[in-house]
Design brief:
6-stranded parallel sheet, Rossmann fold, single chain, 32% helix, 336 residues
């Protein structure tokens, strides 16, 4: 089934492809890239937070008198004021060379180039979360909002042009999203290029690990035992890297395994999300000294600022190549 394309309708949805995670002067724009070898230095974090807060306050103050957006007027022109509330969509927009169209992202978005954008609270994902600030979205008068289907109760029927991303976050959602963004922004050739590059990377990884033994992997999302089941990006990336997710046969996206079940599964590698306990605490858990990964010291934590392997965008494959492949197969750490 082909994904629906964005039209002048008030909202459209992306359907899962396979089985079953006028510009305003007062809106901050992304600064250009720092020239190689030096150039402008980013301001300190406190200054960036103040800038974002002032920009959002200005947008809220101006909201009542702003003109209708093209979407509200029924236009299907390529959007110029995008509010992107999923990290995967922001990363995809960056890969398409369209990040300058984005005016706001969710608060904990780590994609380079979004540091000075308006940040909006959003609670549709694991990790630090608070309720979506709907008023902040409306005040920016976007001509396109990208959000997960979970947020339909909050954002539907608001007169916004919506692009709905599936609540599931498996690898099978990536290509349809990239293609639909390419169509919406009138850059279909760039979308084809991004997809081709992703597919080539995946083929190269499969070739590298094809002859190697499968490695048992336990991935922890946050609190002890919370993991990722079948149909999630991290499950797909573990498989791509030549691993076997010990929770991979569980149908829930984020099931919880008992400590006893994890010990019994005896993972050879433990991969931790940025919000999990650090490796030094993992080794102290009762009974975990019997786990092969603990005895061998093969516990790895994904850096918070480089967690692209967890999100449904083409960059998850790059994250797999950079982190999971060498973690699962140390002999490949120095080879490409």
């Amino acid at each position: 089934m082909s994904p629906a394309s964005i039209s002048s309708a008030e909202s459209v949805g992306i359907r899962r492809m396979a089985r079953r995670d006028d510009r305003g002067a007062n809106v901050p724009r992304r600064a250009g890239p720092t020239p190689p070898g030096g150039g402008r230095r980013d301001p300190p974090a406190s200054a960036r937070r103040a800038t974002g807060a002032l920009a959002l306050a200005a947008a809220l103050a101006a909201g009542a008198c702003a003109p209708p957006t093209p979407a509200q007027a029924g236009s299907a022109a390529p959007p110029e004021r995008i509010v992107a509330l999923t990290v995967g969509s922001v990363d995809s927009l960056a890969l398409l060379g369209q990040l300058d169209r984005v005016i706001a992202v969710e608060k904990d978005c780590f994609v380079p180039g979004t540091e000075h954008m308006v940040k909006i609270q959003n609670d549709d994902h694991a990790g630090p979360s608070k309720a979506l600030n709907v008023e902040a979205v409306l005040a920016l008068h976007p001509d396109l909002v990208i959000a997960k289907e979970d947020l339909k109760p909050a954002l539907d029927h608001r007169g916004l042009r919506m692009l709905w991303v599936p609540s599931s976050n498996g690898l099978e959602t990536v290509v349809p999203i990239v293609k639909q963004l390419g169509d919406a922004l009138d850059v279909p050739e760039e979308a084809d290029r991004v997809v081709a590059t992703m597919n080539a990377k995946m083929a190269a990884i499969r070739k590298r690990v094809a002859s190697l033994p499968k490695v048992r992997v336990y991935y922890e999302v946050g609190q002890p035992g919370r993991t990722a089941g079948r149909g999630t990006v991290i499950d797909d990336m573990i498989r791509l890297a030549g691993g076997v997710n010990v929770a991979g046969e569980l149908s829930l996206a984020n099931p919880t395994m008992s400590s006893e079940a994890i010990v019994a599964a005896d993972p050879e590698v433990i991969v931790l999300s940025p919000w999990s306990d650090p490796p030094a605490e993992i080794v102290k858990r009762p009974g975990w000294d019997h786990i092969t990964a603990v005895r061998a010291g093969r516990i790895h934590q994904i850096p918070e600022k480089s967690r692209k392997v967890q999100y449904p965008s083409p960059s998850c494959v790059e994250g797999c190549e950079e982190m999971l492949v060498p973690w699962l197969h140390p002999t490949l750490a120095e080879t490409k």
